[in-house]
Amino acid sequence: xxxxxxxxxxxxxxxxxxxxxxxxxxxxxxxxxxxxxxxxxxxxxxxxxxxxxxxxxxxxxxxxxxxxxxxxxxxxxxxxxxxxxxxxxxxxxxxxxxxxxxxxxxxxxxxxxxxxxxxxxxxxxxxxxxxxxxxxxxxxxxxxxxxxxxxxxxxxxxxxxxxxxxxxxxxxxxxxxxxxxxxxxxxxxxxxxxxxxxxxxxxxxxxxxxxxxxxxxxxxxxxxxxxxxxxxxxxxxxxxxxxxxxxxxxxxxxxxxxxxxxxxxxxxxxxxxxxxxxxxxxxxxxxxxxxxxxxxxxxxxxxxxxxxxxxxxxxxxxxxxxxxxxxxxxxxxxxxxxxxxxxxxxxxxxxxxxxxx
Length: 357
Ligand SMILES: [Zn+2]
Ligand SMILES: [Zn+2]
Description:
Elements: E1 3-11, E2 14-21, E3 29-38, H1 43-48, E4 60-61, E5 65-74, E6 88-90, H2 101-104, E7 128-132, E8 137-138, H3 145-148, H4 151-164, E9 171-175, H5 179-190, E10 195-200, H6 203-211, E11 215-218, H7 224-230, E12 237-242, H8 247-256, E13 257-265, H9 277-282, E14 286-287, H10 297-307, H11 311-315, E15 318-323, H12 327-334, E16 343-347, E17 354-355
Parallel strand pairs: 9-10, 9-12, 10-11, 12-13, 13-14, 15-16
Antiparallel strand pairs: 1-2, 1-4, 3-5, 3-7, 3-16, 5-6, 6-8, 15-17
Helix pairs in contact: 4-5, 4-10, 7-8
One zinc ion is lined by residues 96-97, 100, 102-103, 111-112.
């Protein structure tokens, strides 16, 4: 048996689920059998070959958020290895060089590639895929697999909240209540933020945020910047996390943040955006750029999942599970702007789609 089902991209916006070769793990790699894969906001863009989604070589399997079982390890040199065959694991999406200035500084997500292009492992929208075993993390027995499946976006949120130093008593506005935004909100609150408010266009998502105890503002019906000032005694928000990547999201961020506050652009803009540097200058706004996650963030996220402290909240992000065979339809559903779905998972061998309330 050397064939598997995978979602193969064959050209811009072209491709589908078909049989292909099972990747062979090289030395230092593990072969993983997929349990659940998560659809990221970036995946439809990668499928469409949008610039910001990267320029994949075709044909190839896409997808990077996974939870799966180690079925083989290629380790002839007997290198120290955190995982063993049979372990349930998660891990980051890329394979940085490990030896450039940025990698050595603990910033593999901005690996300079100065010693050769960073590798892109095969995508996880497939029954099997390979990963460097030193970048895999075991999930503790008893953890809900649907929670484990969000480890990758959680690592992104861990980076965003850790790097920006949101803490005790801070006032936080999050623009966009998608998976990353919600995870940032949960971690900011966990860190002691005194209020966390979401601005969002989807009433469905606003209702979900309210049910999770967050403040809510409607991005179209409310004057979000004015409300941000009203909610903070006129000061403005200490932190604004912009997760929508939209022009109004950017404009609102700069207007809603307090003087000397911090704006974190999290959402990828898929077209060019205008940024008002006059306001940034006048208010001395700190702009913190964040790209994926840094060394240690993935381990911290996995530790949170294995501890279970926030897992009931994390679990609410997963709104549906689709058969891997329907990856194309699931990708289309993931861009539905009604906001019904937060995180869509794919599962190989699933008979029919499961939708959670
Ligand atoms: Zn992702
Ligand atoms: Zn590097």
